[in-house]
Write a structure and sequence with these properties.
Helix content: 40-55%
Largest sheet: 5 strands, parallel
Order of helices and strands: EHEEHEHEHH
Strand content: 15-25%
Length: 150
């Protein structure tokens, strides 16, 4: 039986949930929004999955349910690496596709930044999201779906 591509969204703190649902709907794809029960997300098209609030619960749910060829929207490098190991296609909220070629560098950078934060030598500054980032995400998600042959 042929596996029909699905989209999973690591939704806790994800700024592109509505965009992802809209694209899934236009493409006729099933989409799962995985969030902890502290977040209230409702959608008439998507399947909403609520997990417990403990660390990484959404990640574990996604990794245990994705199949080869599925798309995972996440900003978590660790989850992205696990998705790659299952032959899924992780993409972040800015439209960056995680690959075998770039994931090691990202994981290393995450580790270094975590160590620097512990020492008080590095502080992350998050910039306000802009419409250009949303547009790039839309373009790249549609391109990925097209390349995977939906």
């Amino acid at each position: 039986m042929l596996h029909k591509m699905k989209i999973y969204v690591d939704a806790d703190g994800c700024p592109v949930v509505d965009i992802a649902v809209s694209i899934a709907k236009e493409q006729g794809l099933q989409i799962f929004i995985v969030k902890n029960h502290a977040h209230n997300i409702e959608d008439s098209y998507a399947t909403i999955v609520s997990v417990d609030i403990s660390s990484d619960s959404a990640d574990f749910y996604i990794v245990n349910h994705i199949g080869k060829g599925d798309i995972v929207i996440t900003q978590d490098y660790g989850l992205a690496a696990l998705c790659l190991s299952k032959k899924a296609y992780p993409i972040n909220q800015n439209g960056l596709l995680f690959t075998e070629d770039n994931i090691d560098g990202m994981l290393n950078r995450r580790h270094i930044h975590r160590e620097l934060r512990k020492q008080g030598k590095f502080h992350s500054k998050f910039k306000k999201r802009n419409p250009k980032q949303d547009n790039i995400f839309k373009i790249n998600l549609r391109r990925l779906i097209s390349q995977l042959g939906n």
